[in-house]
TrEMBL record, chains A, B:
Keywords: FAD, Flavoprotein. It holds the Pfam family FAD-oxidase_C. PROSITE patterns: FAD_PCMH. Belongs to the FAD-binding oxidoreductase/transferase type 4 family. Residues 34-212 form the FAD-binding PCMH-type domain. GO terms for molecular function: catalytic activity; FAD binding. This is FAD-binding PCMH-type domain-containing protein. PANTHER family: BLL6224 PROTEIN, D-2-HYDROXYGLUTARATE DEHYDROGENASE, MITOCHONDRIAL. It comes from the Bacteria. It comes from Simonsiella muelleri ATCC 29453. InterPro entries: FAD-bd_oxidored_4_C (IPR004113), FAD-bd_PCMH (IPR016166), FAD-bd_PCMH-like_sf (IPR036318), FAD-bd_PCMH_sub1 (IPR016167), FAD-bd_PCMH_sub2 (IPR016169), FAD-linked_Oxase-like_C (IPR016164), FAD-oxidored/transferase_4 (IPR051264), Oxid_FAD_bind_N (IPR006094). Its cofactor is FAD. One of its GO terms (biological process) is respiratory electron transport chain. SUPFAM superfamilies: FAD-binding/transporter-associated domain-like, FAD-linked oxidases, C-terminal domain.
Length: 458, 458
């Protein structure tokens, strides 16, 4: 069925406002590397409309690509044919249940709106990431998003209580009730979480809420080695437990860049920098004192506690501006990696050495969430245009070889998409990929749902 | 292949100490309702031995039933033919990683030994349930065990970082590295968790550890209604957040039984009783004061704080002795149910009314973990022998009808096993069960692994 035929049929199924006149802004992906083409954009405004479109696709063998906020970094929400189904119009907060501490939302809700709805109800929804002003809950679930609060609250997977999914045959699975204990057969919810739109369309979710913080204390700590950083993390996690929300690592070079860019002085001078934050749901006047004393007594004297909200904001600006400040270095080859925390030091040493040997002019910007073992590992060659990408494959090879040697992962929080599907067989066994294919083919026998993503081509 | 032939072949594959002389103590299940027969008990002492047995079974079409501590309550670890593979000899603590806060263990480790190993390392492993002295980690994972600390720490599913599984073809999947962020294809770990031995044999796991409590405060609160109890739970969860570890409910009748049995006075007089406990990883002298003040200011004046460890123990004894104290009432028909907390009041009223109408002589003992919505709902008819079970089907029908009407689950923390597999189609859609069958048949095409459990017969 060609695009005109699809359009004709879909016009009968959907209402006019579900068929946007100008799809332009939905086609190019966030990284400007992938572009949707030869497809029809639809924006259903109800679960029933999603089901109608899906049934139409199933009956006519039309490919279908689900899209949320289109903020993904691996080309997962890009269509090359058939229908591009954007969830933006499914954007209602359905219910808040304070007894069960849950919020039930449409999949097209923007993350920031879910955070705001929680706050309005006197609660806290912890998922937080750079694109929270435009990314959508459905996409966060499909990619198992991570972000800033994983150390304390886990990834999106840990925050989902229940899901509503339109299967590739158009049938609805709806388990939105907040059940805190339930073991009735294989847990299919977790198969859909992280499935990147290949198994159906998530239309709604019930998510966990938490108590908001009443006390926040933020410290900047300089350490001479990753080893010292990991030692501090190990002991402070046991002392302050779930209060520890953030434990961010920055290299001397990363901080220099951001300090110059932000026009904010470095809080301390050191080879490695840590930004750590504690929160408490109770007012606790002495928390800052306890933290300062703890750092001092354990020999982390090269440290500063934020003495005001302004100073705290400065700490975070230094951390958050690293990305922006490195743009002058040229085009970066980025890596979304994570590993056991205990192996971060070896990874940085071994991988860094090999890269510097191979590319003497390379600059490496290292920062990230040491608290959960995930790093931003950005490499720059002195090439300012897209010719830098010519080395991407070779650089990826080196970085991923080292990350696998440290039992790490090549996809920490951005998922697989188009970008990394040829890497999947390196991190999953043949039996696992066969099982993934069996799941895919049971639900989507004609391979219509985001067909060229996640699973490697046969 | 008959049992003698199996034994002959297995004797060649395994060493003598992996073939126990007397299997008697492994055959009868915990509830004395199911018994293994016509099977050969093996106790491999290495992952390699497990693989050898599994390969033998796959090659010869021999059924295989994995068994941990044999403490299950739904007949899940009972074999009716082939091999009964008991994991008890795979019982080593493999590693503790304090930077990542994880412990890696053999599947046959007894839960209590894992708790003890964590404690020895200055950490806390939170899974805790009545059979912890004999149940095994592999069984806890296979059944997604719940227990006393779910309110704060989640079920076993939430505590598993990584798994090692021998697949039905004998191949090993091993993902024991502690990755706190990882999204590489469909999350198969969660398919194995809760799969009740139908998809392979879990041989090892990496589990989360936590900081131990430095402060514990325990209160007993009398309330006039479930409504009042849920209101308190709602607000106290937001005030004290993750400090709230236990929020246990007992009916007047349940407490009377236990008080008489335990020879401990009831702390307060009321229609409904709550036992709640807060813990904190920091020393916090004023926590008891804060809790008392909170209860008083919110109108929960009919309450007592434990003033000593002895008093705290008495509170818990009253709660824990309910099971033992009800034995004089006769044979109980038990229900392992959970529901949204907000619907507990309606369930108790509606289900109780119908049961009392149908069975005027019935006594109902209600208690459980209100904090996570799961209840022990035990019904007694004045029949002291097993004739009580004649009414089991009819009573189940009523209770489950009401629990489903409240969006609850018929299997909160004991899983499905043999006992409830004919109920699965009531709580999962046809598409979901088809997907479960597809998963099962991809991994275990000859249906050898715990074949008659979990999934309803075709």
């Amino acid at each position: 069925m060609n695009l005109n035929q699809i359009r004709e049929k879909i016009q009968i199924i959907l209402t006019e406002n579900e068929l946007p006149q100008d799809p332009t802004s939905f086609l190019l992906d966030q990284r400007k590397r992938y572009i949707s083409e030869n497809c029809l954009l639809v924006q259903p405004n109800s679960v029933e409309s999603v089901q109608k479109v899906v049934r139409f696709c199933a009956e006519n063998g039309v490919p279908i690509t689900p899209q949320g906020g289109n903020t993904g970094l691996v080309g997962g929400s890009v269509a090359k044919s058939g229908i591009l189904l954007n969830l933006s119009k499914l954007n209602k907060i359905r219910a808040i249940n304070l007894a069960d501490n849950t919020i039930t939302v449409d999949a097209g809700c923007v993350l920031q709106n879910v955070q705001a709805a929680a706050q309005e109800a006197g609660r806290f929804f912890p998922l937080s990431l750079a694109s929270e002003g435009s990314c959508q809950i459905g996409g966060n679930i499909a990619c198992n998003a991570g972000g800033l609060n994983v150390l304390r609250y886990g990834t999106m997977r840990d925050l989902v209580v229940g899901l509503e999914v339109v299967l590739p045959n158009g049938e609805l699975i709806s388990h939105l009730q907040p059940l805190h204990k339930n073991t009735t057969g294989y847990e299919l919810k977790h198969v859909f979480i992280g499935s990147e739109g290949t198994l159906g369309i998530i239309t709604g979710a019930t998510l966990k809420l938490f108590a908001p913080a009443q006390t926040t204390e933020t410290a900047w700590v300089g350490v001479e080695s990753i080893h010292d950083a990991v030692n501090l993390l190990t002991s402070i996690k046991n002392q302050f437990a779930e209060r520890l929300c953030s434990f961010e690592l920055m290299s001397r070079f990363a901080l220099q860049l951001s300090s110059n860019f932000s026009k904010i002085n470095q809080p301390v001078d050191s080879d490695w920098h840590l930004l750590l934050e504690l929160t408490d749901s109770l007012k606790r006047e002495d928390l800052g004192h306890l933290l300062a004393e703890y750092l001092y007594q354990n020999g982390y004297e090269n440290s500063v506690l934020a003495q005001s909200e302004q100073e705290r904001q400065n700490f975070w600006t230094l951390r958050e501006n690293i990305s922006a400040s490195q743009r002058d270095l040229g085009v970066s080859i980025k890596h979304d990696i994570a590993m056991p925390i205990i192996q971060v030091a070896d990874f940085l040493e071994n991988c860094g050495s090999e890269l510097q040997l191979e590319y003497p002019e390379m600059r490496i910007v290292v920062f990230g969430h040491l608290g959960d073992g995930s790093l931003h590992y950005n490499t720059f060659l002195p090439v300012k245009d897209n010719r830098a990408y010519e080395q991407e494959g070779a650089i990826n090879q080196i970085v991923y070889r080292h990350i696998l040697a440290q039992n790490g992962t090549i996809a920490a929080e951005h998922a697989i998409g188009s970008l990394k599907k040829h890497w999947l067989a390196q991190v999953r066994t043949a039996d696992e990929i066969l099982l993934m294919r069996a799941i895919k083919s049971q639900l989507d026998p004609n391979n219509l749902f985001n067909a060229d993503k996640l699973l490697p081509s046969v």
